[in-house]
Design goal:
The strands form four sheets. Strands 3, 6, 7, 9, 10, 11 and 12 form a seven-stranded mixed beta sheet that branches. Strands 4-8-5 form a three-stranded mixed beta sheet, with no helix packed on it. It has a two-stranded antiparallel sheet with strand order 1-2. Helix content is 23%, strand content 18%. The chain is an alpha+beta fold and 290 residues long. It has one domain. The protein is globular and about 90 Å long. The longest helix is centred in the first third of the chain and has 51 residues.
């Protein structure tokens, strides 16, 4: 009796199939990665919108005064050059640091707008994966929040009436770059308010006192968070993508009317910021954009 022969793939056929699958994967994986990044960017833009609306709702409830960018600690002064706990009691819970510490941390913009956002997750962009632990979570305290966005610190306690062009004035930006802080947040840029006995608010160029000068903190990650730019929100409440000239390296210079950073490092972190000698030029409430 003749035995029936079983069908089987030859080695050549298997190799051809594997090669076809590899080619398809090579074609599709970048598409999937782009789709994933588009989704992250959309989520980031939504976060920006929520934070801007929360800041403006806060302002409406406080006589059109914008949130504090940083807190105040009696005896020390304005904490303009400090990280702030997010949530305010994550690193120091149950009042063990005292009411002055609690009040100072509650004044920070991410904490003071929390009644409006009701969600600490809006403070981190999904694309800002690199994490830097700033404050360890205290025992029994709320979980640390991750933050990657920065408030325009020149708006600290400013009024809406002081903004010449709110639709073009940055409110919330990704000015930590493609990285996040664990347990703390920042404002970037920030007013320099070194006098603990005086109010702190933006003072235009040529003036003197708390808020007459400003500075900025370096980025923890590349400024190219989404493609070659970032998602920003503005003082009229809208949010949109902001392209940046991250390929302009020192000694090159960007256009100061359209971009806050004058030149970038090879890793796409800002190297220099545009200044009028007193303030970060692009973030000024009295900035007149072209």
């Amino acid at each position: 009796m003749q035995k029936q022969r079983r069908g089987a793939f030859t080695l050549i056929e298997l190799l051809v199939v594997i090669a076809i699958i590899a080619i398809l994967a090579a074609i599709l994986f970048p598409v999937f990665a782009q789709a994933r990044e588009k989704a992250r960017s959309a989520s980031c833009l939504s976060n920006n919108k929520q934070m801007s609306m929360a800041s403006l709702m806060y302002s409406q409830d406080y006589d059109e005064t914008m949130p504090f960018a940083f807190g105040y600690y009696p005896g020390i002064g304005w904490m303009w050059n400090y990280y702030h706990n997010v949530p305010y009691n994550a690193a120091c819970t149950n009042g063990v640091c005292g009411p002055q510490w609690t009040n100072m941390m509650q004044g920070f913009w991410m904490n003071s707008t929390q009644p409006y956002t009701k969600n600490f997750q809006v403070f981190v962009c999904p694309s800002a994966a690199k994490s830097n632990l700033i404050y360890a979570q205290a025992s029994g305290a709320p979980a640390n929040a991750k933050t990657s966005y920065a408030y325009n610190g020149l708006l600290h306690s400013s009024t809406q009436a002081s903004m010449l062009q709110p639709a073009q004035l940055p409110l919330i930006t990704e000015s930590n770059g493609k990285a996040n802080f664990d347990g703390a947040g920042l404002m970037n840029p920030t007013l320099v308010c070194s006098n603990p006995n005086a109010l702190c608010t933006y003072i235009p160029a040529g003036g003197s006192g708390n808020g007459a000068t400003s500075g900025w903190f370096g980025f923890s990650g590349p400024a190219s968070v989404h493609g070659k730019g970032e998602n920003w929100s503005y003082c009229d409440g809208h949010a949109k993508y902001k392209g940046l000239s991250v390929s302009v390296l020192d000694p090159g210079r960007t256009n100061f009317n359209y971009e806050p950073w004058a030149a970038y490092n090879a890793d796409e972190t800002p190297k220099f910021g545009w200044s009028n000698g007193y303030h970060m030029y692009y973030f000024r409430p009295d900035m007149q954009y072209p």
